[in-house]
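User:
Care to share a sequence and structure tokens?

Assistant:
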Amino acid sequence: MPPRKQATRKKTAKKDFDHRFRATYDKDVEWQEDVSNELLTLPPGVKVKIFAHDPVMKRIDMKVKFPKGYVEPRHTHKSWHSILVTRGRMCVAGKDLRPGDYVFGWDLPHGPYEYPDGCEVFVVFMGEGTQHVWEEEKHLKHKLKWEARSAAGKKAVAKGDAARKQALTEKRAAAKSGAKRKPRRSG
């Protein structure tokens, strides 16, 4: 009898998620941009490589690539994350983090994170959701505090600042024109 119960448990585990040992080459996992927008709900430009997703444990292991000049808004989410910088630099909480440095975040607001020269991180999310909750207007008003070290980074930072400023101007103009377009009630 015990072997049967064990077989049943394996079958159930397989149905929910494959918990068997595996080793994966980084080069065999494709970068995805469209998934990152849905999974992380961040401004466009971020790419992810998902190495493991376990809905039973509510865990996702992934690499995230942030382009030069990118700003990750101050945010919350319904999961914790452990982040290890693997390439480039991440600037957050007054620290200029480099490969091997670590960040932990939970459901309290954290960020913004700045990536003036671009960055790759390995992150483990565990909990109810990876979606970032952030305020667009605060994000659009953000000015980078950290200087880029490379010429390409400096150019990307200037472009990002200009794009956020333009988006804020357009958002405010749309709000003004939307207020004028509302029909007036007579009476």
Summary: The chain has one domain: 17-179.
